[in-house]
Amino acid sequence: MTAGKAAQRISLAQARRITVDSALLGPRKGLGKGTGAVLETVKRLGYVQIDSISVVNRAHHHTTWTRVPAYREGGLYSLLKQRKLFEYWGHAASFLPMADYRFYLPLARSYRERPGVPFARALRKHEPLFPAILERIEQQGPMSSADFGDEHGSRGGSWWDWKPAKSALELLTSLGELMVSERRGFQRIYDLRDRILPGSVDRTEPDEEELADFIVRRTIGAYGIAREREVREMLRTSRLVPVKEKLASMLAAGEIVAIEVDGLDGHTWYAFPELLEGLPAYRRRREQVSILSPFDNLVILRDRLQVLFGYDYLIECYVPQPKRQYGYFSLPLLFGERFVGRLDAKARRSEKLLEVQSLHLEDGFRPSAEFELEMARALRDFASFIACDAVKLSGRGYNLSAAMQKRIASQLG
Fold first, then answer.
1. Residue 281 pLDDT exceeds 80
2. What's the CA gap between 32 and 40, in Å, rounded?
3. Is the pLDDT of residue 73 over 90?
4. Phi, psi of 264 (to 5 degrees)
């Protein structure tokens, strides 16, 4: 922290409320309606992460629905096709606002000029395919990886094999030569960058100062309060700029302020000055349950989650089954401004049934009647979102009482 700039103090309750509201999970979001609300969500979060796992629903749909209850699966894909969003590397593979396109140009250039070892290895292996792939897309129009099967009738043994072509398409996208034109189902359709970018989009590559300013503002805007660590970790492109120096210069200029949070000694957080102007005293408000994706913007940075909320979360789909504690794909449960548990659920689509395979509440959390009602409502809404007509509490792997299970089940209808 820059000398002479004393940190302002806020309570832990205030810090959590700021964080939840900035993540668009509070009661008043002001997002608007329809696809406009979806676009505003991506803009304010900075990105929405894409993931292929669909035990309940894919992460990008789940994350968006949690903020926009009327959302259905086509919303993000529609905005992609309208060129209001584009796909690239945010925190990971992400939907990003098209208005931010220019700030990802330095990352694309870095993959060519300063690739890491795995990327460089893949580039050496698949770059010979690039000219033919680019020529074919130029001549035939947008194509998916499935369009690049062996033209001689076999998917194995040919240089035009599907798997190398798929890797080459992904590399060309990272390099910025191709972009995702649309999604059909979950399949990406690729086209040349210049046929996708609207003429109104600024293609001027920012210098280091501009990029650093964008990264700091984008991160603090999305998180409300952020440490240097979050500014470094939220977006992959932040590795290209001197984050620490930029925070110091913005602090000295009064563009951001330093914050300390009661009970979280040793951590300096940063915020925009207007956030703290007239910050109201903390007052309890109606709490609702949100069932979050493991890749939700609020939980994806696990250290931040642990420090701010005391919530130790691990997605266990990558953990060997005998070592799993909570289930293959446990989902965090947010109740108001507290993480109070996690549930492992599976959509049995042929039966239109959402089965809750396990439900664990956090140690020290004392569920109220209000929580039970909210938990039942959240399950009903979640089931509706994933096109299930009913919810089943299996009763296996639960740490809540049988009486509570029965009361929640009675509210499910």
1. no
2. 8
3. no
4. -120, 60
Residue labelled with tokens 């349950």: 289
Confidence tier at 150 by pLDDT (50, 70, 90): low
> Measured between alpha carbons, how far is 41 from 273 in angstroms, rounded to an integer?
23
Distance CA 165, CA 147 (A): 9
The pLDDT assigned to 29 comes to 77
Please state, as a whole number, how many other Cβ atoms lie within 10 Å of the Cβ of residue 34: 13
Q: How many C-beta atoms surround the C-beta of residue 98 within 10 A?
A: 20
Average pLDDT in the chain: 92
pLDDT band at 5 (very low <50, low <70, confident <90, very high): low
CA 362/CA 371 separation, integer angstroms: 13
Q: Report the predicted TM-score, pTM, of the whole model to 2 decimal places.
A: 0.93
Domains of the chain in start order, with CATH, are 8-99+203-276 (no CATH), 115-196 (1.10.10), 289-410 (3.40.630)
Measured CA to CA, the distance from residue 238 to residue 293 in angstroms comes to 24
| Residue entry with tokens 């994350």 | 63
Place of tokens 């209808």: 413
Reference 404, options 346, 353, 365; nearest CA is 365
Rg (CA), the chain: 23
Q: Report the distance separating Cα 276 and Cα 20, nearest Å.
A: 16
According to the model, what pLDDT value does residue 381 have? Answer: 95
